[in-house]
Amino acid sequence: MTGGPARREVRAAGVQGGPAGVEGGPAGGEARAGGGEGGATAGSDAVGPPLVLDPAAQDLLFRAARTANTFTAEPVDDAQVTAIHDLIRYGPTALNGQPLRVLLLRSAAARTRLLPYVSGGNRAKTADAPLVAVLTADVDFHERLPELFPHRPQAREWLADRADRVAQARFNATLQIGYFLIGVRAAGLAAGPMAGFDAAGVQREFFPEGRHEVLLLVNIGRPGPDAWQDRLPRLTAEEVIRTR
Questions:
Q1: Closest to 77 in 3D by CA, of 33, 36, 131, 17
Q2: φ and ψ at residue 158, rounded to 5 degrees
Q3: First and final CA of the chain: distance in angstroms?
């Protein structure tokens, strides 16, 4: 939002144009505690593990989870996708706008339409994946705000400017993509997110009406033989987190 009363009202509702303005979540000390299995959280008198999530679930969602490059032929059915969405829909978005929209490509005809826009390095695994999801941002998500954010009936008008609305849609749909990938892992599946494709071409092919901005392709299925290489290094908490 830019200036004026609407800007002030959006801030009052918890939206400030970036990550700090998104509806709350456990992003403070709990994140700093990640990786340990015992002891107390820094600055706390409590004794016990810093993560309450079961270690097996931690591995399933994070430590053992990988980006798959090959998949088995086992299908991913609609019930699994619905269960993934029913789990991840509780992730926070600004104004509770939920702009992520997902197009599932199952048919051979749909896959044939997609593949010319996928980079050479990603084409074979996209052709072989049991399911391909096209993740997009609905740039007219504000039309649902009277229903999704009912305590601020004027919220739809805050986003009357298309440029502001597209920025909000892209940012919040990207947040939801993170939730979506974790949801795929929670279903015991592997996700292969890809930015190596012609987004404008995919948009023209599947969303010519202009309402959806294509953000990411994700191959989904059970990992096949040689699905991944050795895990690459990750930054430590000491390299990422600072306290003032």
A1: 131
A2: -60, -30
A3: 29
Based on its alpha-carbon atoms, the radius of gyration of the chain, rounded to whole angstroms, reads 20
The DSSP bridge partners found for residue 103 are 134
Q: What is the pLDDT of residues 98-154, one digit of tens each?
A: 999 999 999 999 999 999 999 999 999 999 999 999 999 999 999 999 999 999 989
DSSP state at residue 21: G
Model confidence pLDDT, tens digit, residues 150-180 = 999 899 999 999 999 999 999 999 999 999 9
DSSP string for residues in 64-118? S--B-S-B-S----HHHHHHHHHHHTTS--GGG---EEEEEE-SHHHHHHHGGGB
Residue corresponding to tokens 């305590």: 151
87-103 burial: b if 16+ Cβ within 10 Å, else e: ebeebebbbbbbbbbeb
In the DSSP assignment, the letter for residue 18 is S
Q: Which burial class, exposed, middle or buried, applies to 10 when counting CB atoms under 10 A from its CB (0-12, 13-18, 19+)?
A: buried
Cβ burial of 198 (10 Å; 0-12, 13-18, 19+) is: middle
Residues 70 and 128 sit within 8 Å (Cβ to Cβ) = yes
- For residue 142, give the DSSP letter: G
Four-CA torsion 140, 142, 144, 149, nearest 10 degrees: 160
